Amino acid sequence: MSQIEITQILEQIREEIEVDASGKGKASIRATARLADVQDSSIRRAFEGAALEPSLLAQSLIQQGFDSAALQSWSQEGIPDLAVATILEYYAYDAGRYCKKQARLVCKAFIAIGIRVWMQTIKGWDKSEQPQDCSKILSPSHEAAQLALLVGEFAGLEKSLTAQLAVNAATRVNPALKPAADELKSAIACTDPCDDAYLNPTQIGEAIGKSAIAVNKWLINAGLQYRTDDRKLPYRPTELGKQWGRMVSAVARGSNQTVFQLRWLPGVTELFQQYQ
Question: Does the pTM exceed 0.85?
Answer without folding.
Answer: no
